[in-house]
Amino acid sequence: MKNLVRQFIFVLGVAFLSIQTNPVCAQIGDVEFVIGDALPDAPALSARGNYHIGVQTLNLINKNQIDILNAKEGNEPLYDRPLTVEVWYPSSIDSSLASIIEYEDVLGVAGNPERPLIPFTFKGRAIRDASPIETDDSFPLVVVSHGYVGSRFLMTYLTENLASKGYIVVAIDHTESTFKDAAGFQSTLLNRSKDILFVVNEIADLTSRDKQHSLSGKVDADRTAVIGYSMGGYGALNAAGAGYSDIALNFFKGITGGSTALESRGTLNKSYKKSLDPRIKAVVAFAPWGMERGVWDNEGLKGLKTPVFFIAGSEDDISGYEKGIKAIYEGAINANRYLLTYDNARHNVAPNPPQAATMKDGLHIDEYYRYAEPSWDERRINNINQHFITAFLGIHLKGEEHDAYLNLKEDSNEKTWFGFIPRSSTGLSLLYATVGEK
Question: Which of 1, 35, 140, 215 is 20 to 30 Å apart from 223, CA to CA?
């Protein structure tokens, strides 16, 4: 009997180690599971769509931007700001289960000797530079903005998933805000919403029907959504109408030696409202940063009139919850909005799961906690995000009838939510408010 017990414990230990060392690329039978694949208990709309996926890299230049990192004593030089973006799109080439792509990213943070840059690869399901699907149809545009620091590959579980459902998805590497080139925070404060608006315009222009681009005629920028995580959420909300407060503008002056460059994104600035893009029809804001620091006030949040789907952890210790993300949700009284909350989750409700590379001996624990949640399986979070964002964007960008997936009891523990398998919708809450409601 003792031998049987020892064998059972050994088998469990081997299974545990195999899961821990490679949680995002496991072999089960003849099927390889990679980032973004649906777990057995994934909700209904998390499954990939019917389109095969291509992916390509574009290098964009936003000319004559303020070089805030080199501003001195009232002198603000200009520079041509480079932005690398990754584009996922419906393809005519089969990217089925047998077609695996390797994305290249880095661990560490530029300039931090305790966390040196370490290249690594991870897997997804797309074909590099595949031919776009041959169709006269155009697809809604989704622009994705990472956190500080981050990269355009931080949410491939979502970017691939949406492309498979008939969206053109463009994820930005925000210059001076990525793992590879992290620099002064003032660049992120100034450039986030400006980068987002520039990319919407640039992609619309590059892919217009009169241009010679592989995606010409395929992008319908009149149906655009913006998805932002943390500082990406800070930028996404501003791009959609939530003007920054005087507190935010004064803070920016304080860390830049008196620069007024951020005032163009302030609530009371006359040019701010003119800069807003009416093509942005929906926003998804993961753990948006700033409310606890006074970035927005009630007047600024009133300017947000675009439908918003907020996603947060109840224990977020970066952006804050009650006085942070939930306070933004409550203050945005001129928008129809949702707030999905993961009970006991902290800040990492948006990224891919931790890769095997993050678990190597000797690495700083933050390499793992860049991706992981202490109380949740990140793969589970990914599937739930895929489900709700599919419903939300489907309603606002495609006119799809997904209301039943969002008209739910607030507490997921009371009754299994529609679209979830029995007993699986635990530890979640969903708030909804219409225009005029707090």
Answer: 35
